[in-house]
Protein backbone atom coordinates (compact mmCIF):
# COMPACT_ATOMS: atom_id res chain seq x y z
CA UNK A 1 0.00 0.00 0.00
CA UNK A 2 1.34 3.42 -0.90
CA UNK A 3 2.11 5.74 1.97
CA UNK A 4 -0.46 8.41 2.73
CA UNK A 5 0.95 11.73 3.91
CA UNK A 6 -2.38 13.54 4.28
CA UNK A 7 -5.38 12.65 6.38
CA UNK A 8 -8.37 11.37 4.37
CA UNK A 9 -10.85 14.09 3.53
CA UNK A 10 -14.07 14.26 1.55
CA UNK A 11 -12.19 15.94 -1.29
CA UNK A 12 -9.34 13.41 -1.19
CA UNK A 13 -10.65 10.06 0.08
CA UNK A 14 -8.52 6.97 0.49
CA UNK A 15 -9.50 3.71 -1.20
CA UNK A 16 -8.54 0.52 0.60
CA UNK A 17 -9.06 -2.76 -1.24
CA UNK A 18 -9.92 -5.74 0.93
CA UNK A 19 -9.91 -9.37 -0.14
CA UNK A 20 -13.24 -11.18 0.09
CA UNK A 21 -13.82 -11.79 3.78
CA UNK A 22 -17.08 -13.75 3.61
CA UNK A 23 -16.64 -17.27 5.03
CA UNK A 24 -12.99 -16.62 5.90
CA UNK A 25 -12.99 -14.58 9.10
CA UNK A 26 -15.89 -15.10 11.52
CA UNK A 27 -16.96 -11.87 13.24
CA UNK A 28 -17.00 -13.86 16.48
CA UNK A 29 -13.20 -13.58 16.40
CA UNK A 30 -13.55 -9.80 16.75
CA UNK A 31 -14.19 -7.91 19.99
CA UNK A 32 -17.94 -7.23 20.38
CA UNK A 33 -17.39 -3.51 19.82
CA UNK A 34 -15.90 -4.26 16.39
CA UNK A 35 -18.33 -7.01 15.39
CA UNK A 36 -21.32 -4.86 16.32
CA UNK A 37 -20.18 -1.76 14.45
CA UNK A 38 -18.17 -2.90 11.41
CA UNK A 39 -21.23 -3.42 9.23
CA UNK A 40 -22.39 0.14 9.87
CA UNK A 41 -19.19 1.91 8.82
CA UNK A 42 -20.31 2.49 5.23
CA UNK A 43 -23.63 4.17 4.51
CA UNK A 44 -25.83 3.72 1.47
CA UNK A 45 -26.07 6.45 -1.15
CA UNK A 46 -28.50 9.17 -0.02
CA UNK A 47 -30.31 9.16 -3.36
CA UNK A 48 -31.06 5.44 -3.20
CA UNK A 49 -31.97 5.69 0.49
CA UNK A 50 -34.35 8.49 -0.45
CA UNK A 51 -36.08 6.32 -3.05
CA UNK A 52 -36.44 3.55 -0.46
CA UNK A 53 -38.01 6.05 1.97
CA UNK A 54 -40.47 7.08 -0.74
CA UNK A 55 -41.45 3.45 -1.31
CA UNK A 56 -41.89 2.80 2.41
CA UNK A 57 -44.04 5.91 2.85
CA UNK A 58 -46.29 4.95 -0.05
CA UNK A 59 -46.74 1.41 1.24
CA UNK A 60 -47.67 2.66 4.69
CA UNK A 61 -50.19 5.09 3.20
CA UNK A 62 -51.99 2.26 1.45
CA UNK A 63 -55.55 2.01 2.70
CA UNK A 64 -57.23 -1.30 3.31
CA UNK A 65 -58.56 -3.75 5.86
CA UNK A 66 -56.54 -4.84 8.87
CA UNK A 67 -53.10 -3.45 9.62
CA UNK A 68 -53.10 -1.12 6.63
CA UNK A 69 -49.86 0.67 7.50
CA UNK A 70 -47.95 -2.57 8.08
CA UNK A 71 -46.43 -4.72 5.40
CA UNK A 72 -44.65 -8.04 5.08
CA UNK A 73 -41.34 -8.08 3.21
CA UNK A 74 -40.42 -11.01 0.96
CA UNK A 75 -37.14 -11.79 -0.76
CA UNK A 76 -38.41 -14.05 -3.55
CA UNK A 77 -35.11 -15.62 -4.56
CA UNK A 78 -36.32 -17.81 -7.43
CA UNK A 79 -34.07 -16.67 -10.27
CA UNK A 80 -32.68 -19.39 -12.55
CA UNK A 81 -29.42 -19.82 -10.63
CA UNK A 82 -31.32 -20.57 -7.40
CA UNK A 83 -33.87 -23.08 -8.68
CA UNK A 84 -33.40 -26.63 -7.48
CA UNK A 85 -30.97 -25.59 -4.76
CA UNK A 86 -32.77 -23.18 -2.46
CA UNK A 87 -36.33 -22.55 -1.31
CA UNK A 88 -38.86 -23.16 -4.07
CA UNK A 89 -41.46 -20.66 -5.25
CA UNK A 90 -44.12 -22.71 -3.46
CA UNK A 91 -42.14 -22.76 -0.21
CA UNK A 92 -41.56 -19.02 -0.21
CA UNK A 93 -45.01 -17.92 -1.31
CA UNK A 94 -46.90 -20.36 0.92
CA UNK A 95 -44.88 -19.29 3.96
CA UNK A 96 -45.37 -15.63 3.09
CA UNK A 97 -49.11 -15.82 2.56
CA UNK A 98 -49.74 -17.95 5.65
CA UNK A 99 -47.68 -15.51 7.74
CA UNK A 100 -49.56 -12.54 6.31
CA UNK A 101 -52.90 -14.16 7.13
CA UNK A 102 -51.80 -15.08 10.65
CA UNK A 103 -50.85 -11.47 11.31
CA UNK A 104 -53.75 -9.82 9.47
CA UNK A 105 -51.45 -8.12 6.97
CA UNK A 106 -52.87 -7.08 3.63
CA UNK A 107 -49.74 -5.88 1.84
CA UNK A 108 -46.63 -7.79 0.73
CA UNK A 109 -43.55 -6.00 -0.58
CA UNK A 110 -41.58 -8.38 -2.79
CA UNK A 111 -37.96 -8.06 -3.89
CA UNK A 112 -37.04 -10.32 -6.79
CA UNK A 113 -35.27 -10.36 -10.13
CA UNK A 114 -37.74 -12.96 -11.43
CA UNK A 115 -40.64 -11.03 -12.94
CA UNK A 116 -42.64 -14.17 -13.75
CA UNK A 117 -42.46 -15.33 -10.14
CA UNK A 118 -43.64 -11.93 -8.96
CA UNK A 119 -46.57 -11.96 -11.40
CA UNK A 120 -47.62 -15.42 -10.21
CA UNK A 121 -47.51 -14.24 -6.60
CA UNK A 122 -49.61 -11.19 -7.44
CA UNK A 123 -52.30 -13.48 -8.88
CA UNK A 124 -52.10 -15.97 -6.01
CA UNK A 125 -52.33 -13.34 -3.28
CA UNK A 126 -55.06 -11.33 -5.00
CA UNK A 127 -57.43 -14.30 -4.74
CA UNK A 128 -57.39 -13.98 -0.95
CA UNK A 129 -57.42 -10.20 -0.74
CA UNK A 130 -53.70 -9.56 -0.26
CA UNK A 131 -51.95 -6.91 -2.34
CA UNK A 132 -48.44 -7.57 -3.66
CA UNK A 133 -46.22 -4.65 -4.64
CA UNK A 134 -42.61 -4.17 -5.67
CA UNK A 135 -40.44 -1.11 -6.18
CA UNK A 136 -41.50 -0.71 -9.80
CA UNK A 137 -45.24 -0.94 -9.21
CA UNK A 138 -44.99 1.61 -6.39
CA UNK A 139 -42.80 4.09 -8.25
CA UNK A 140 -44.84 3.75 -11.45
CA UNK A 141 -43.70 5.99 -14.28
CA UNK A 142 -42.44 8.76 -12.02
CA UNK A 143 -39.06 10.44 -11.95
CA UNK A 144 -37.85 8.11 -9.19
CA UNK A 145 -38.41 5.05 -11.38
CA UNK A 146 -36.61 6.65 -14.32
CA UNK A 147 -33.70 7.56 -12.09
CA UNK A 148 -33.53 4.09 -10.51
CA UNK A 149 -33.50 2.41 -13.93
CA UNK A 150 -30.13 4.04 -14.62
CA UNK A 151 -28.49 1.88 -11.95
CA UNK A 152 -27.40 -1.74 -12.28
CA UNK A 153 -29.22 -4.70 -10.72
CA UNK A 154 -27.15 -4.80 -7.53
CA UNK A 155 -27.47 -1.06 -6.97
CA UNK A 156 -31.22 -1.31 -7.43
CA UNK A 157 -31.11 -4.08 -4.82
CA UNK A 158 -30.07 -1.49 -2.23
CA UNK A 159 -33.55 0.00 -2.48
CA UNK A 160 -35.09 -3.44 -1.95
CA UNK A 161 -32.76 -4.11 0.99
CA UNK A 162 -33.77 -0.90 2.76
CA UNK A 163 -37.48 -1.47 2.11
CA UNK A 164 -37.24 -5.03 3.44
CA UNK A 165 -35.35 -3.81 6.51
CA UNK A 166 -38.33 -1.66 7.49
CA UNK A 167 -40.98 -4.33 6.91
CA UNK A 168 -42.93 -5.50 9.94
CA UNK A 169 -42.14 -9.14 9.17
CA UNK A 170 -39.54 -10.50 6.77
CA UNK A 171 -39.57 -13.80 4.86
CA UNK A 172 -36.56 -15.02 2.88
CA UNK A 173 -34.64 -18.00 1.55
CA UNK A 174 -32.33 -19.87 3.91
CA UNK A 175 -29.78 -20.38 1.14
CA UNK A 176 -29.47 -16.71 0.26
CA UNK A 177 -26.77 -14.49 1.78
CA UNK A 178 -29.00 -11.48 1.02
CA UNK A 179 -31.95 -12.92 2.95
CA UNK A 180 -29.66 -14.07 5.73
CA UNK A 181 -28.11 -10.64 6.16
CA UNK A 182 -31.50 -8.94 6.30
CA UNK A 183 -32.46 -11.29 9.14
CA UNK A 184 -29.12 -10.85 10.90
CA UNK A 185 -29.29 -7.06 10.85
CA UNK A 186 -32.98 -6.94 11.77
CA UNK A 187 -32.34 -9.16 14.78
CA UNK A 188 -29.38 -7.02 15.82
CA UNK A 189 -31.38 -3.79 15.55
CA UNK A 190 -34.29 -5.44 17.34
CA UNK A 191 -32.04 -6.08 20.33
CA UNK A 192 -29.89 -2.94 20.31
CA UNK A 193 -31.75 -0.06 18.66
CA UNK A 194 -35.06 1.10 20.20
CA UNK A 195 -35.77 3.27 17.14
CA UNK A 196 -36.11 0.09 15.08
CA UNK A 197 -39.18 -0.72 17.17
CA UNK A 198 -40.59 2.78 17.22
CA UNK A 199 -39.07 3.53 20.61
CA UNK A 200 -40.19 0.28 22.25
CA UNK A 201 -37.20 -0.87 24.31
CA UNK A 202 -38.67 -4.37 24.63
CA UNK A 203 -38.03 -5.09 20.95
CA UNK A 204 -39.85 -7.84 19.13
CA UNK A 205 -40.14 -6.53 15.58
CA UNK A 206 -37.91 -9.24 14.11
CA UNK A 207 -39.19 -12.14 16.19
CA UNK A 208 -41.57 -13.35 13.49
CA UNK A 209 -39.02 -13.24 10.66
CA UNK A 210 -38.57 -16.54 8.84
CA UNK A 211 -36.11 -18.17 6.46
CA UNK A 212 -37.52 -21.10 4.54
CA UNK A 213 -36.13 -23.81 2.28
CA UNK A 214 -33.94 -26.04 4.43
CA UNK A 215 -31.10 -25.34 6.79
CA UNK A 216 -29.55 -21.92 6.83
CA UNK A 217 -25.99 -21.85 5.54
CA UNK A 218 -23.10 -20.65 7.67
CA UNK A 219 -24.11 -17.01 7.43
CA UNK A 220 -25.03 -16.81 11.12
CA UNK A 221 -21.38 -16.79 12.19
CA UNK A 222 -19.76 -15.44 9.04
CA UNK A 223 -21.37 -12.06 8.49
CA UNK A 224 -21.41 -8.76 10.34
CA UNK A 225 -24.84 -7.32 11.20
UniProtKB/TrEMBL annotation:
Which Pfam family is one of those matched by this entry?
O-FucT
Instruction: Kindly state which keywords UniProt assigns to this record, in alphabetical order.
Output: Carbohydrate metabolism, Fucose metabolism, Transferase
Q: Name one GO biological process term.
A: fucose metabolic process
Q: Which GO terms describe its molecular function?
A: transferase activity
Query: Among its keywords, does the record have Ribonucleoprotein?
Result: no
Superkingdom is Eukaryota
Recorded protein name is O-fucosyltransferase family protein
Q: Which organism is it from?
A: Arthrobotrys conoides
Amino acid sequence: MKSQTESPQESSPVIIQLATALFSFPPSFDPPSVADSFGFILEFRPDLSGIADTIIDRIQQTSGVGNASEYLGLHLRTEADAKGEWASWDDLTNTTISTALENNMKTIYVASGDKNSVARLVTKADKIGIKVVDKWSILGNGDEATYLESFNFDQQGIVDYLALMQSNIFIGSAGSSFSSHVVTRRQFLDEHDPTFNGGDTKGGRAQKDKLTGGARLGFWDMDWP
